[in-house]
Amino acid sequence: MNGRRSCAGLNAGFALVPALFLVVVLGALAAVAIRVGSGQQHTVTMGLVQARALAAARAGVEWGAYRALNGSCVSSSTLTLTEAAANGFAVVVTCASTTFSNGTASNNSYVINSSATAGTYGQPSYVRRVVSATLTDAT
């Protein structure tokens, strides 16, 4: 060669830099998209589990009210739910009774607390809902 360099030799690695940049940027965007998608999925799943826990706690209040109005206001008892969406929740129901005078009659006022939990405390899947109700047997 007569001292000239070929153009092909100078531009041989020029396309490699933008190609690598494009691959790195697309990889980062894919990682962010996957992380956001899984976060949204976890949020939706936990919303559903929280709704199930609330339903289980409400069932505990209804069970406690039924027992209290039928003469069995126990300070603390456990309700075992095994059906459908409530399966897997531990429901603890407490009942406190207070007697009051209503004219010549004596009636009771009941405070019922129900706590439904699922999962292990401190873990991302842990959920707990508490529902309270006050009722009376006065007519």
Through-space gap between termini = 113 Å
**Strand portion:** 25-35%
Uncertain stretches of 5 or more adjacent residues = none
Average pLDDT for all residues: 84
How many strand elements?
A: 4
Estimate the global geometry from the Cα principal axes.
rod-shaped
Q: Major beta sheet, specifics?
A: 4 strands, antiparallel
Task: Give the proportion of residues in helices.
Answer: 40-55%
Tally of individual domains: 1
CA-based gyration radius: 32 Å
- SS-based structural class? alpha+beta
Q: Order of strands across the widest beta sheet?
A: 1-2-3-4
Total helical elements = 2
How do the SSEs run, as a string of H and E? HHEEEE
How does this structure look, described?
By secondary structure, this protein is α+β, with helices and mostly antiparallel strands. The protein has one domain (about 10-135). Helix content is about 40%, strand content about 30%. It contains 2 helices and 4 strands. A 4-stranded antiparallel β-sheet has the order 1-2-3-4. The longest helix has about 55 residues, at about 15-70. It starts with 6 loop residues before the first helix and ends with a strand. The mean pLDDT is about 85.
